[in-house]
Structure formats: C-alpha cells, structure tokens
Amino acid sequence: METKREPAKNFQQLVVWQKAHQLVLTVYRVTESFLKHELFALTSQLRRAAVSVPANIAEGFRKRGPRDKLRFFNTAEGSLEETHYYFLLSRDLGYADTESLIEQANEVGRLLEAYGKSICASLQSSNS
Predict the structure, then answer these.
(1) What angle (nearest 5°) sits at the alpha carbon of residue 108, between those of residues 61 and 10?
(2) For a surface tag, which of 2, 54, 98, 106 has the fewest beta carbons within 10 Å of its beta carbon?
(3) What does the alpha-carbon distance between residue 95 and residue 89 come to, in Å, rounded to a whole number?
C-alpha cells in the first residue's frame, strides 16, 4: 500500500530543492580549483547558473497558481541545462572531472520533471 507524503510546508522540505542545493554546494567546492583568470568568466557563469536552479524552485514554491509554479520550475530546468553545458566545458578544458556533477544534475532534472508533471496533473484536474 502506497503512503501519501504530506505536502511540503516550505521549499526546504522539497527533495528537488535539497538535491539542487547540494549540487550548488558541490559546484562551489569544485570551482574553487579553477584557474584564477576564470573567476569572472566560467567560474562566475557556472556558479550563477547552478544557484539559479534552487533559487527558482524556492521562488516557484510560494506562487499560488499552478501556471506560475510551472513557469519557475521551467526556468529552473533551463538553468540546469545551462549548468550541464558548463560541466561539459569545464571537463573539456581540463579544469575538473565533472562526471559526478553531471550525475547529480541529471538526478535534479528527473526530480524537476516529476514535480512539473505533478503540477500539470493538478492543473488538468482543476480544469476538468
């Protein structure tokens, strides 16, 4: 028998936010070793894109309508894809082995997709 989870009371209770936040912490640790001349280039861009993921999840959590929520979760998905590209670039430039980062990002992506589908389902059921 499947047990239904109690709805999150704040964004920190969302598993997707927790995983995205852990990804950001890992990104900060990894980028500390990047070359200093990348500080205002790749390091900054990667950190900014990664931080945008949990930030948009948090902002979307408080939105009242499902359409607004979906917009923020979609923005988080876009930022996650941007982050994924920076992982590939970092790897190809020889700055870091980003395989585990890519795996973490893929997990966040799967959770974001599932959360988005759940919001869509609630939107469709409320329109019926």
Answers:
(1) 25
(2) 2
(3) 9
Question: Which residues have CB under 8 Å from 108's CB, separation 6+?
Answer: 16, 19, 20, 23, 53, 80
> For the purposes of burial, counting CB atoms within 10 Å of the CB of 48, is it exposed (0-12), middle (13-18) or buried (19 or more)?
middle
By the 10 Å C-beta count (0-12 exposed, 13-18 middle, 19+ buried), 115 is classed as buried
Full-model pTM:
0.90
**CA–CA gap between residue 16 and residue 64 (Å, rounded):** 19
Both tokens of 5, joined, read 């989870």
Q: Is the predicted pLDDT of residue 2 greater than 60, yes or no?
A: no
